[in-house]
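ASSEMBLY PREDICTION REQUEST
Request ID: AP-0331
Submitted by: J.K., bench scientist
Number of chains: two
Total residues: 228
Priority: normal
Notes: Please return the full assembly, not individual chains.
Input sequences:
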Amino acid sequence: GENVEQHPSTLSVQEGDSAVIKCTYSDSASNYFPWYKQELGKGPQLIIDIRSNVGEKKDQRIAVTLNKTAKHFSLHITETQPEDSAVYFCAASQGSGTYKYIFGTGTRLKVLA
Amino acid sequence: GAVVSQHPSRVICKSGTSVKIECRSLDFQATTMFWYRQFPKQSLMLMATSNEGSKATYEQGVEKDKFLINHASLTLSTLTVTSAHPEDSSFYICSATTGTGTEAFFGQGTRLTVV
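STATUS: Completed
Returned structure:
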């Protein structure tokens, strides 16, 4: 079955700097890769996603890149702000919403003011 | 975006009792719902997938008789933790999808504490 690895587990950056979180997956059939932000005591919220027919996607300060050959994808947050502090999860799926997601282990991001 | 509501957000129950958690899609019809369990500082582990009107598909290692899932309508799925024990204490999260190939939407989670 699919296995998703995520690094780093914790990440501290100064406000204004960039943050990069990386994930690798094992199943070449996976073709949908969402990223979620989870704040303490709350459910995950989708922040960006990418499908396998695209190599990069950007939404304001957030971008995701995908390398299907190497089976890895990354989240890039630029100009980080204290409110970006949260736990971020990547996931992989063989479809999109209709198929089960396999989540990475999470990255606790702390943006220092 | 679409809204998925879970109820209750927190529940404390005595060991041996059963607890029901509801997951509702408020503004769309959810053909598929997923139930996850999350331990502190850990990732989301998929427990089961439910499709409206059919039996849930449980992941390996998840006891179907302990975690009863009912997806009776296109807007409601319930998870019942039967004969709860302290080790069942966890954060339970549902997600729902319209089935048209779009994203899955997550509920806010339910923190269950069994004492």
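REVIEWER COMMENTS: Chain A has a mean pLDDT of 94.
SIGN-OFF: pending second reviewer
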